Amino acid sequence: MTAPFPRQIPQYMRRYYRRLGGFMAAYAAVLIGGLYIAMAGIPLPVRVFLAFLNAAMILGVFWAIFRLLAECDDEYQRLLLVKQTLLATALTLAITTCWQYLVVYEVLTEGPAWVGVIWLAAFGIAAPIVRWRS
Amino acid sequence: MNNRLRVLRAERQWSQQDLADRLGVSRQSVNAIETGKYDPSLPLAFRIADLFAMPIEDIFLRDSA
Questions:
Q1: For the whole model, what pTM was predicted?
Q2: Which residues does A51 contact at the CB level (< 8 Å), separation at least 6?
């Protein structure tokens, strides 16, 4: 006997994909456009504006992820998402802490930087780890 | 917590995906519950009980049972 309901991508995932795609496309456009304009030489206030605009797109991705957590109506999937978020945070803290002390002991000259991007990469890495054998 | 979900599902010849669709959850959720990796919340346990038209305690059993 087959189920009476269609098998489809859940609404909360559709909304997440739409938000994620929108912010990632906007991020690429702002970054490429911003750097192109900045190379031509622009005043400080415009550079500050572009910096915050670029950051806003990354913040938008964070917002999309946390909306996904709030809107997910499958409790087991939500549990996995929470685990994924915590693992991503732990990985980011581990990487940036090690990086920090490499700077303290003058192995590296700069950092930690790109923390938001590191977290998003860690979020991607954490997904298969959390779902492995789940 | 033990449960009889796999047996009840098999009696009705439903796949995990069939059951998941009926409950409005993912197939992974059904698998996790059946294998004892995840204990459902009380609202989901009631939905499962309603679907099988059985009391919760006839589906979910104490570990010692």
A1: 0.86
A2: none
